[in-house]
Structure formats: C-alpha cells, structure tokens
Amino acid sequence: MRFLLLFSRQGKLRLQKWFTPISEREKKKIIRDMTTMVLARQPRSCNFLHWKDLKIIYKRYASLYFCLGIENQENELLALEVIHRYVELLDKYFGNVCELDIIFNFEKAYFILDEFLIGGEIQETSKQMVNRAIEASDMLQETMEEYMSKPAF
Predict the structure, then answer these.
(1) What pLDDT score does 153 carry?
(2) What's the pTM?
(3) How would DSSP label each residue in 58-97?
C-alpha cells in the first residue's frame, strides 16, 4: 500500500496518509490526479483503476471518497476490505461518521488509522482490539487532562 486519501465530493482533501517517502510536489500531483480521476467517474463504475504503476481502489461512503493506492501485485478486494474496515472503525468511534467528524477530529481519525495500519500493512484485524486501544487512549487523555487541571501545590 502506498497511500490512503480521503476527499469530499467537492474534491477537498480531508485526510492523507503516505506509506512510502514521496516529495511534496509529487504528493500534490497524486492528490490532484486522484481527485480528478475518481470524481469524474460514473457512480455505477468499477471501484478499481490502473494509474501509472499502481492500482487505485476507491469507495464512496456518504459524501467522502476513500482512496487507496496499492502495488499491481496486491489484492484489490483486500484493499476494498481495508477501506471498509477503516470506515467501520470510524463509525464505531464517532457513531455514523460524517465529513464534519473527520474535519473537526482529524487527529482521532489519524490515530484510528495508525492503530489499524502501520507502514501500509494491516496491524490489527480485530475491530474489538482496535476499539480497546482507542478507548485506552481516550482514558489516558482524560486522566492527563484531569491531572493537569489540578493545582500543583
């Protein structure tokens, strides 16, 4: 897996995760190409594209497009399942995730992605284990905020 992009129907980038080192200029070109290509496709079109030396897998959920760039030898259906699992994890955390959840809680969206994927590979297949890690992180954050709000004397 090379990258994961989330963008709106209007082409606004909402989240990006790069799993290989790429220059900023190349990233901008890829983002522009992906949003243009995916948004130009008909709603009932296949969710798989070939672009340069990559396969592009995308799926639309509500007003967001989830787009993965994978190597040619990787499995498209597994990539589609990765997208679906990430959406399930976001739904579980936010309760029917929407674009505004991603915009205003982007750090949580990145954290959930990092608990699920590392280096473009699936780290944890169990939704329950990922959810436990997210809950533990939230508890730690609440404890730290509570601790930091108390006077030091």
Answers:
(1) 66
(2) 0.89
(3) EEEETTEEEEEEEETTS-HHHHHHHHHHHHHHHHHHHTS-
